[in-house]
């Protein structure tokens, strides 16, 4: 997968050199380039923002550097899926991460200040898919943290990136539920024991316990997820839980 990130703070993306993403880049599974938007400015101050049309607080990112950046990085005919982090975007979910992991080329436009002039997104959507995507119902300083989160969520789904791909199957949000609690050794710690069933070696009982715990946790913490599960996703034993 090819990934381009355009930002006024390239240093913010440095963690993408670390850990499993760093290894995926070194192994050639992911090719990731971070571009400084100010490269496409032409004044001595390298200005990327201006006052809002119609008045109001804050500054808006000017369209010209963005237009030039996208022209330079996407000369065509192949185009990326352009993702624009925004608190006004559609909520980013695991289902979306799965879809994005199958795409060959993603580009990210990181907003700062009060965001990017809307005409940049309108013009881009004439020649490539554009999605405004939100990390959650809160406001960050800029799109960079959202890019770190989205790139992690997407790239870990690409075959070869995770050491043990089987771990993806039982994770939270994979089957619409939150994952059951996890334990490791020692069997007893600080007066607290690992649940007996997990020490039983009885595979079917362990699976049933994990499923019940996942259902209970989801009901307690995210009833919205449980309500959204299709009926056929629950078996008879689930309904007894
Ligand atoms: N004026 C914008 C609004 O009210 O919708 C908020 C701008 S915010 C201060 C600056 C930038 O941070 C945004 O352009 C976006 O790139 C990023 N950002 C802030 N909150 C975000 C969120 N919840 N999800 C994704 N990106 C976010």
From TrEMBL:
Q: What reaction(s) does this enzyme catalyze?
A: guanosine(37) in tRNA + S-adenosyl-L-methionine = N(1)-methylguanosine(37) in tRNA + S-adenosyl-L-homocysteine + H(+)
Q: Specify one Pfam family.
A: tRNA_m1G_MT
List the SUPFAM superfamilies: alpha/beta knot
Q: So where does S-adenosyl-L-methionine get bound?
A: 111, 135-140
Which keywords belong to this entry?
Cytoplasm, Methyltransferase, S-adenosyl-L-methionine, Transferase, tRNA processing
Database matches in InterPro entries: Alpha/beta_knot_MTases (IPR029028), tRNA_m1G_MeTrfase_C_sf (IPR023148), tRNA_m1G_MeTrfase_TrmD (IPR002649), tRNA_m1G_MTases_N (IPR029026), tRNA_MeTrfase_TRMD/TRM10 (IPR016009)
* Domain of life per record: Bacteria
Q: What positions does the domain tRNA methyltransferase TRMD/TRM10-type occupy?
A: 1-226
Q: Name one GO biological process term.
A: tRNA N1-guanine methylation
Q: Do you know which NCBIfam families this protein is assigned to? A: PRK00026.1, trmD
Query: Which PANTHER family does this UniProt record tie to the protein?
Result: TRNA (GUANINE-N(1)-)-METHYLTRANSFERASE (PTHR46417:SF1)
Q: What is this protein called?
A: tRNA (guanine-N(1)-)-methyltransferase
């Amino acid at each position: 997968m090819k990934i381009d990130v355009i930002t006024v703070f390239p240093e913010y993306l440095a963690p993408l050199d670390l850990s499993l993403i760093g290894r995926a880049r070194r192994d050639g599974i992911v090719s990731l380039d971070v571009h400084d938007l100010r490269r496409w400015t032409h004044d001595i101050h390298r200005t990327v923002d201006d006052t809002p049309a119609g008045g109001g607080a804050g500054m808006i990112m000017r369209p010209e550097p963005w237009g030039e950046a996208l022209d330079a990085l996407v000369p065509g005919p192949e185009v990326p899926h352009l993702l624009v982090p925004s608190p006004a975007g559609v909520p980013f979910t695991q289902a979306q991460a799965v879809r994005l992991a199958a795409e060959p080329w993603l580009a990210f436009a990181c907003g700062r200040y009060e965001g990017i002039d809307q005409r940049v997104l309108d013009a881009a959507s004439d020649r490539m898919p554009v999605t405004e995507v939100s990390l959650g119902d809160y406001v960050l300083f800029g799109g960079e943290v959202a890019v770190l989160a989205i790139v992690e969520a997407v790239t870990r789904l690409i075959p070869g990136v995770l050491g043990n791909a089987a771990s993806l199957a039982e994770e939270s949000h994979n089957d619409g539920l939150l994952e059951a609690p996890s334990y490791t050794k020692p069997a007893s710690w600080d007066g607290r024991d690992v649940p007996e069933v997990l020490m039983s070696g009885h595979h079917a009982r362990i699976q049933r316990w994990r499923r019940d715990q996942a259902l209970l946790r989801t009901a307690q913490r995210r009833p919205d997820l449980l309500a959204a599960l299709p009926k056929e996703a629950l078996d008879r034993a689930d309904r007894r839980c």
